[in-house]
């Protein structure tokens, strides 16, 4: 009887990992909220292309960190249960066509900046600061 009420070490580890998974899923709300705000409440014309690019890069980094962390947790749980582990993230940008479209829009905006400000484009300024050769 006492054996049934006490958790084994493996069960404790799995419970801990489950708690970490739940916390990680909760943290996914931050990038999801940023995407929602950009998509529905922002006048995208008011943003500079570099601001949008930075925001999207930040969201992308956050999402991939979450995906990696979640995959690691799932791998741990599967290993404890005797299952196969994952070798790569299950989701990629190809699963989200709206991200691909947003990337295309950013490229178009950057191209427009290059055309309008060929000698004073913000990326060229940054590259010059870093010592890169810029035409």
TrEMBL record:
The lineage of its organism: Bacteria, Pseudomonadati, Pseudomonadota, Gammaproteobacteria, Pasteurellales. This is Uncharacterized protein. It comes from the Bacteria.
């Amino acid at each position: 009887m006492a054996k049934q009420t006490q958790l084994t070490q493996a069960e404790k580890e799995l419970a801990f990992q489950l708690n970490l998974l739940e916390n990680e899923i909760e943290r996914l709300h931050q990038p999801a909220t940023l995407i929602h705000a950009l998509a529905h409440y922002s006048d995208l014309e008011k943003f500079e292309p570099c601001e949008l690019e930075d925001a999207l890069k930040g969201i992308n980094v956050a999402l991939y960190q979450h995906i990696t962390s979640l995959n690691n947790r799932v791998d741990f749980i599967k290993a404890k249960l005797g299952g196969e582990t994952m070798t790569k993230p299950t989701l990629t940008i190809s699963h989200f066509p709206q991200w691909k479209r947003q990337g295309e829009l950013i490229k178009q905006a950057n191209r427009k900046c290059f055309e309008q400000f060929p000698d004073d484009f913000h990326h060229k300024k940054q590259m010059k600061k870093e010592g890169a050769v810029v035409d």
